[in-house]
Amino acid sequence: MPDPTRPEGPKIIAIANQKGGVGKTTTTINLAAALAETGARVLIVDLDPQGNASTGLGLEVAARRVTVYDLLLEEAPLGEVIQPTMQDGLSIIPSTVDLSSADIELISNEKRSFLLHDALRQPAMDAYAFDYVLIDCPPSLNLLTVNAMVAAHSVLVPLQSEFFALEGLSQLLLTIREIRQTANPALRIEGVVLTMFDSRNNLSTQVEQDARDNLGELVFRTRIPRNVRVSEAPSYAMSVLRYDPLSKGAQAYRDLAQELIENTARIAA
Ligand SMILES: Nc1ncnc2c1ncn2[C@@H]1O[C@H](COP(=O)(O)OP(=O)(O)OP(=O)(O)O)[C@@H](O)[C@H]1O
Ligand SMILES: [Mg+2]
């Protein structure tokens, strides 16, 4: 039951695909930046021990004294783990390699699947008035990813426009179904977004066709093109929207944010 004395809270989206290098982190950073550009207040949760989202937004390892590990396993206060970024309206809970042991440490914890869910729903979150929380998942269907899916309202799946792209997707969909049957019955699939799309490449077009044939409306209209500006931006500790605001990559992530906002409005109506 919603608590009438508390605000509704942010929309929480897990960005997940157990396949490595498909554009999860790139999509997390740039979709978050595009949502923040519309005036929304956005929090990224870096739930990957690789810490790529933290690095890509310019958080030096030395500045990551208190991380998502401390939030999940040490009950660190939100005020200590949420850090601002260079972009207005965009904050991050960073991670470091310490998180790699969490998967094992969580096993003996009775609330192991609910730690992120509970952390993001503590009353102290209200003061931040976030509109969106985007969770960057590791390339695995481990307990960290399960925590993300239990905490989230929906899952957004980046799909690289390459051979074998659809392989593994059935395992991911099965995991989502299992989480729905147990810990989070309301979990939705936000959509599948084609990443690193190259319209001159037949393979990209083939993957798109397969995805649309198999998944229909679940596939976002917006495709994220392969764009060198997108891959350069993290080394300047910026989203592509800041690094090269007029690039095709930046424009595509703005389009994706608009589509997401429209979908959310349609579901609420
Ligand atoms: N649209 C794009 N155009 C060009 N390069 C891209 C694009 N999207 C992602 N990349 C590059 O592809 C690589 C993998 O992307 P990313 O790190 O976002 O994937 P990931 O799914 O988060 O990987 P991991 O599974 O390791 O966490 C990175 O080097 C990134 O810069
Ligand atoms: Mg990543």
Give the topology.
Blueprint: E1 11-15, H1 24-37, E2 42-46, H2 52-56, H3 68-73, H4 78-81, E3 83-84, E4 90-93, H5 102-107, H6 115-120, E5 132-136, H7 143-151, E6 154-160, H8 169-181, E7 188-197, H9 202-215, E8 219-225, H10 228-232, H11 240-243, H12 248-268
Parallel strand pairs: 1-5, 1-6, 2-4, 2-5, 6-7, 7-8
Antiparallel strand pairs: 3-4
Helix pairs in contact: 1-12
Bound molecules: adenosine-5'-triphosphate (ATP) and magnesium ion (MG).
Can you describe what's shown?
This protein has 269 residues and is an alpha/beta fold. The protein has a single domain, classed as P-loop containing nucleotide triphosphate hydrolases (Rossmann fold). It is built from 12 helices and 8 strands. The chain has helices at 24-37, 52-56, 68-73, 78-81, 102-107, 115-120, 143-151, 169-181, 202-215, 228-232, 240-243, 248-268; strands at 11-15, 42-46, 83-84, 90-93, 132-136, 154-160, 188-197, 219-225. An 8-stranded mixed beta sheet has the order 3-4-2-5-1-6-7-8, with helices on both faces. A hairpin with a 5-residue loop joins strand 3 and strand 4 (90-93). Helix 1 (24-37) packs across helix 12. Magnesium ion binds next to helix 1. The site of magnesium ion has 5 residues, from helix 1. This is Chromosome partitioning protein ParA. It comes from Roseovarius mucosus DSM 17069.
Supply the key terms.
about 270 residues; alpha/beta; Rossmann fold; eight-stranded mixed sheet; 8 strands; globular; binds adenosine-5'-triphosphate; binds magnesium ion; Chromosome partitioning protein ParA; P-loop_NTPase; DNA_Partitioning_ATPase
